[in-house]
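Q: How would the structure tokens look for this protein?
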Amino acid sequence: MVSIIIAQDGNDLNDVRELFREYLEYIGFDTDKELIGFPNEYFHAGGRLFLAKHEDTAVGCVGMTQFDNGICEVHRLFVKVKYQGRGIGKKLMEKFFSEAQKIGYDTIKLYTLPKLQKAIDLYLSLGFAKIKTYRKNMYEETIFMKKELP
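A: Here is the predicted structure in token form.
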């Protein structure tokens, strides 16, 4: 059974850091550069880090940051390859939606890369729609998406 928690203490944050590192290596980003300041951006008002655990093993994560008034942003949704296909990404996003509503967000934005087709398919199945670019300095092929919360 998989549980989804809000990561807040040292052990859970270390697990999220390692999952972020694995994700960044998978997509080919500079892990050291991308992890500078972790986890600070997720602990500002309206931010969260969610961790999926199977028994005592960290198997997935996703981050939330405030983008603007009423708008949050999804960061680094990742499930270890061994655990993909079990609905863990969907469970992480359902927890994300629940917390976003509790905080008071009404819109969720995200950006992703075409090579992450499983994630794109998940986002579309959860009600996200493709939108125009909302951030500068992104890779040309970056896909931007948005979902309105009920």
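The mean pLDDT is 93.

The helical segments are 10-27, 31-34, 88-103, 117-125.

Upvote if useful.
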